Amino acid sequence: MIGEVGETIVVRRRLNGAIVAEVETTARVMGYQPREIAGMIQAGDRKVIALVDTLAALLPLTAADKLVIRNRECAIKSVDDNTRRIAGVLIALEIQAAG
């Protein structure tokens, strides 16, 4: 389903300020609903469900990595690699992004 409704984003990794890796993947990018905004989730944050099929070389993603969504670099606040598993196989990451 994400492959049908998603968009291409870039996962970017830097080392000492220099870009050392950029990988495209398909993701569904959404805002959080008002009822979800609490705790660490702030207004303006985005929920990104990113397919992992092209991300193997970058896993695990960390808060030091960045997402490029619609030509805008966004910070990764958290990465959930448990919610989007099927029969124990990781299919997608659920990422909280800011920016």
Brief characterization of the structure:
By secondary structure, the protein is mainly β. Helices cover 4% and strands 54% of the residues. The protein has a six-stranded antiparallel beta barrel. Strands 6-7 form a two-stranded antiparallel sheet.
Structure description:
This protein is mostly beta strands. The chain has a single domain (2-98), classed as Thrombin, subunit H (Beta Barrel). The protein has one helix and eight strands. The strands form two sheets. A six-stranded antiparallel β-barrel has the order 1-2-3-8-5-4. Strand 1 (7-15) and strand 2 form a beta hairpin. The protein is globular. The chain starts with a helix and ends with a strand. The mean pLDDT is 93.
- The average pLDDT is 93
Strand order of the largest sheet: 1-2-3-8-5-4
> How many alpha or pi helices?
1
Order of SSEs, N→C? Answer: HEEEEEEEE
Query: How would you describe the shape?
Result: globular
Low-confidence stretches: none
